[in-house]
Give the backbone structure.
Amino acid sequence: MIQTPYLLFLGDAPDQLAAKVAQGIKDWRPENAVGQFRMPACGTTVGLQDMTLEEGLAAGAKTLVIGVANRGGYISAEWKEILVSALNMGYDIASGLHNLLRDENELMAAARVNGRTLFDVRIPSVAYPIANGKNRTGKRCLAIGTDCSVGKMYTGLAMDTEMHARGMNSTFRPTGQTGILITGGGVPLDAVIADFMAGAVEYLTPDNDADHWDHIEGQGSLFHVSYSGVTMALIHGGQPDALILCHEPTRTHMRGLPEYDLPSLEALRDMALPIARVANPACKVVGISVNTQHLADDKFEAYLAEVEARMGLPAVDPFRQGAARLVDALADI
Amino acid sequence: MIQTPYLLFLGDAPDQLAAKVAQGIKDWRPENAVGQFRMPACGTTVGLQDMTLEEGLAAGAKTLVIGVANRGGYISAEWKEILVSALNMGYDIASGLHNLLRDENELMAAARVNGRTLFDVRIPSVAYPIANGKNRTGKRCLAIGTDCSVGKMYTGLAMDTEMHARGMNSTFRPTGQTGILITGGGVPLDAVIADFMAGAVEYLTPDNDADHWDHIEGQGSLFHVSYSGVTMALIHGGQPDALILCHEPTRTHMRGLPEYDLPSLEALRDMALPIARVANPACKVVGISVNTQHLADDKFEAYLAEVEARMGLPAVDPFRQGAARLVDALADI
């Protein structure tokens, strides 16, 4: 586990999109961040208090989290100077960048000298077991999508947050680097060796209290030919009791696959349920989460109502409307 | 690619089961092996001519292939002495053992000094791409199973062999270490990083002549929760035109999963076809391959006849009956 709280490194992020990871931490685990660190060239903010490295330490920060994508795909000399200073001052560093911290000699040397840890969360740090498929105690909910990047992580975080607000017993279980940095732990499933994918998901979602819900972060899509194997392993390793179908209605083709149309929500339901029931015969599809950000304010409610009537399931945009009705839908499980 | 022909190292294999890889090479690619090398303690044979390392070289062997499982899960001092001699004499060495050749200092040193190559076929040697899902020319056939280890590799090899005997244009495409050693190349799919599984299968089965068939070696099962993600990537990466359903009728539960029953052939067909049609809308289930080794000589034909009538598809045991009717079933595709 990455030690919290964090100081969020925004570096020289030109805009909000580049600071997506920091924004996710600010939105979902504000208690995990004491402030933000910006370089002079930074063109955005996540709205936290600006701090120097020294001020972050004084506020209790244990880890400097790279909350930003790196320009050009390499770790610049300017970044490195700051990161080495942080290690010298006693910070751990955590990163989801493709370029690994551990591949930078200066950072490795400074971490060793100071006894600090570099967390490259894209790389598994655990030798996961082969899945054994044994039935586990507690409840699990998995968001699956008609496509990649349709709001599965957001849906899981929103349902977990709603449950906590109600005093219910739940945990968000990250399976990608953004989710791992937001919560401090999880499994970078897309980087796991094929034979151990389902076992990694079992490891992530162990036996739990009978009233406890895991909200497992979804990945890929059963209909996305590049990543469907990862989705399959999530369904069979997670043995979910409940599935939430996620959709983005304005997309014209599968992400990165211009020749592939999106499936209907019906097609997703009909493919996913028999698959899920291999591992958990009681699994049900309980609700629909729609990312309506590209639908106008006067259009999205009509769309959701149409989906809800057609599918016979609650259909909500958790960003616009909250996840209350999705959590309500778990009550019967 | 591993250089052929091989000398097959049987080492101190106690019995035929331990020499499974060597037997596979002898059965399916006899032209790839000049002979077998046995240590004094060896308790089995694959029926090839016994040769010393020198005799193997004289017969043209380029690579010493470890055709046997290692006792105790480590590479013994006795083995190492022989393997180092082979490297010194000019052999490459290829192995599918869990213990990697490259992790043995003596072998690495001898390979370096002599400019030879150590092939650990369990480990990918290529940086596979992310799958792009683009439609490819040529035809592809994939064997999928109700369970693991029900004869998928055997089915693909038998169909490929039958096609060659008929003068047809086909290639067996291995996805596991035994198949890779048999043919000299392939993708060790269970060791590929999750994000690249489907891309590895695309890489393995590229554009080809319109009349060419790839017989893709299947892995796992859509119903085997430990490995179903690998199977999924095979189906979406392979974009098969034809599926063969494989089954072993006497198995009482899924391999390694005592709590899981085997699915029916109907359930396998009904789950697999919609999945396969995501990548190839024209995909059909064309035949059934049954491993009847545990059915008596007076029972297996009645069983196959019953399956054939029930499923409306040719049902054969390619080991007992040959793969001719499965190849015939591809004619309509």
